[in-house]
Amino acid sequence: MIIDFLGHLHPVFVHLPIGFLALAYVIQYLFKSNTEKSRLIDFVLVAGILSSLLAALLGWMLSLSGGYEENLLDWHRYTAIAVCVVSIALLAYKKYKKEDYKTPYYHAGFHLMMLALLLAGHFGGEMTHGEGYLLEASTDLVSKGKAVGQHQRMPKPTASSTASDHDDITEPSGPAALDTIAPADAASIAALKKINVAVVPLATGTHFLELNMVNAPSFGDKDVPLLQQIAPQVMWLVLADTKITDAGLEPLKSCSNTTRLNLKNTAITNASIPWIAQFSKLEYLNIVGTKIDDAGLLGLAPSATLKKIFCWQSGITANGVMAFQKKYPNIDIDFGEKK
Amino acid sequence: MNELMKMHYENKRREFLRGSVLGLGGIAMGSLLGCGSKNADRKAVQQVAEEINKPLVNPHFLPKAKRVIYLFQGGGPSQMELFDYKPMLYSMHGQEIPASVVGKNRISGMVSNQYSFPLAMPAATFKQHGAAGGYFSDHVPHIAEIADDICVVRSMFTEQINHEPAVIFTQTGNQLSGRPCIGSWLSYGLGSMNDNLPSFIVMVSKGGGDQPISSAAWSSGFLPSHHQGVQFMTGNEPVPFLNNPEGIDRMDRRRALDFIKGFNNIQNEVWHDPEIESQINQSEMAYKMQMAIPSITDLSDEPQHILDMYGPDVMTPGTFAHNCIMARRLAEKDVRFVQLYHLGWDHHGSIASGIKRATSLTDQPSAALVKDLKQRGLLDDTLVVWGGEFGRTSFSQGKLTPEGFGRDHHPGCYSIWMAGGGIKPGMVYGESDDFAHNVVKDKVHVHDFQATMMHLLGIDHEQFIYKSQGRRYRLTDVSGNVIHNLIA
User: Fold this and answer.
1) Closest CA to A127 of A68, A66, A60
2) ipTM value
3) Among A219, B53, B251, B351, which has the minimal tally of Cβ within 10 Å of its Cβ?
4) How far apart are CA B286 and CA B290, in angstroms?
């Protein structure tokens, strides 16, 4: 438990030796030599060594929690140990040589320490941010980088999983009942869209469609053949305010899965009643503003599924509604505002 | 100026200069070293952002509602004078509200130094209406008529006690402005059926009251800005500049727009700023609206008996009645979200006359809208919501005088109603205590209400997410439950 906790402090403390040892390097090669500088380097090196030992210890604890990719972990571990060893050796050599420490060995040691530091840092970075992080910096800056921001201290589980597995939660599958139809013919959909018909899947994961003519008021009988191919997929059919007539509606009776049929403000008459009766799964029928009258309504042998009829401003009268209601008490028929 | 002050000021100047030099130097060095993002980087950033934030396009599951008309009643309509009948308030008129009832409820700064909180009997009488026998006050006779078509929720509660944060909370799910509102979420998520009209339209009625409302309530927040609500004006011309200036015909407009679009596309190639695409979208929409709007706003094709339903104000542009009939016409054209704001429900004083005035402007048109949608077969898949940002206190604000008393803001309990779009009709949901002060049964939090609304539109509110600045956001933030008992 405590080891786990301490291990999790590794990403915090690991930045100290990076800073100290790099600072020592900068001081060594940026400033003129004098006693003050030598003492400063000693101090910074000691700080670097102590913090690198601490970071290494915490890193070892973190590695016990497992889950990191072994190969990378090994590289990170050995380069980090090299940082500790080389920096200690460097300081020891400097102290041993006293005044004349500036030999080629000393400089070689300093460069080696810096190299080990860079490598250890690089491997550590690859472990947290994913392999190839440095090179893909531009695109990863946003995608993986952000996702990693949330699981930075989480071990990278396996090589095959990606950060994007967080992002597909917005795509759940649709309900199973809707999943039982083949995809609609793409060419038909394209042709319908071309004449401004809105063709919209009813939900994610289903091929059932809503067809809505709100942008295509000139849709008429001549356009009906475009629907033939996709008739089984059409669940909601909104033909309101179009130029469709009885002749155009006849072929549409092949829309065997249609549950909502909206014929509001069209030239549909009683002649369409037989076709309407053949929509076997119809639940909602809107004949507001059509020419269908009482005779038509009473002639309708509705499917067993029909629940609602809207017939305001059609030829249907209150008497017709009453007579129909008597015959089919379970169908809710809306005759509009009572005056 | 003494010595010390002098040093003090000098020090400030030096610090200012030093800070400026270092700061500006740093910025300059950054650009010298080439730290500014390159074209390709910006493109990559935009592509990744687009990939993460894909609009839903299709609902998660089969929707019951296709569009929403939200009749927002700003100011805080009093539940006790409208839908929540409390006989106890009549019998205890003038007595102190029991401490056990007040509990830990927030009270506003406006009444916090009152030494007495006398209960005030509602300035209304109540009758039962509809098959479910719900009580409606005499202020809302027309809404009472549609009792069988609506569902009154008497158990709403919110977290905010002041107008602005409460409105923003109801609309965006967060009390601070800056997040997208419901309409923007839907416009972004589901898009539009109608190519020629905006998917989200806002109308604020004039003449209601002086309650302020800020456009943050219809802001698109971090969503692309063409999803913000398009506000119709309240004058004779709801959308200005529909006609081309003299000497400019429609083809000239088209050519000009295409030319400007060309420039915008060149800029977009360089900057990859989503706002450029929003700009292009907006211009195109404005062009299409030039054609589509006149047929929407011209009421001359409405028969007189329909106009009469909405009441005498219907022909006056900017009134709530006028906006209601406009909302119906927009719903007929499959506009996804129409939001009406009616203000003037903030009755801190003289609630009796205030509520009379507010209901005289809203009762008949609200009911007419529901009836009109219903007879056209539109109510079936159009969700109508009527409600404000909070309720009002059962005790009097200030001195309790006959006729003269008012009520303060009260977030702990209020009433709204909904109709159509898959909501159970003819129902009263939830219950408040004898003082309409606390909810005692079937609590509905604002987030629950939002989650339920999303559900009716076929959206799982927990999976409808937009990632912005490293955090995933939802309309319902981190809470909200769908109230399945409200759904037919």
Assistant:
1) A68
2) 0.80
3) B251
4) 6
